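Question (not urgent): is this output format expected?
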Amino acid sequence: MSAARPPEGAHTAAEGEGTPASAPTSAPVGARSVTVIDYGIGNLLNVVRALQHCGASVRVVQDAAGLQAMPERLVLPGVGAFIGGMVEMRQRGLDDLMRRFAATGRPLLGICVGAQMLFDAGQEFGEHPGLGLLAGRVQPVPEATPSGGRHRIPHIGWSALVRPPARATWAHSPLAQMPEGQSMYFVHSFAPVPADEAHRLADTFYDGVRICAAVGRDNIWGCQFHPERSAEHGLGVLRSFLAL
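Got this back:
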């Protein structure tokens, strides 16, 4: 598989590297404000730097007490296991914060495991409850291909996005600037399976296996791929989210 390329002009950092809670970072006057959730497990620094590269003013919070008021936008990144993320979220009071924020109607974006945790439950290491913001479950990427062969798990590398049959357009979503067929960077063994086909924003195909690549309902969005590791088109996803 091809190695991931960082966005042009953005710095790279090891996955899982954290950053302390802080005041908003310096950004141009009039910059869009976004808060990134740090629950101790995530590709946090890459996401923060990619958002800053897009001109955002970024604040990082590590627990519910770190917010004095609801932010304008919220990003939930993540790598690793679904259950590990949910345990940390609950211990920090961030699960309730996410539900209250979603109810405000303001834009929310989950990335990779952050997108998976938006769903009712995940089936990694048994079945465990998620945030319940989207109906459906997170299931293993099938090991068998439609032809009866087997392919590598995890699914790692660049894979093209396509619109599902229930999505006529990507307008007014984080994929608004995305040309159909553009490849994005994936690293995952599990993927969400929405209960409602209308919540599928984008799919990808791995050796013929259909995988949900992005989801959306109202103000709640999620990307199974990593926009912060998907070069210029990945930055376009973040810019479109900031414009919502």
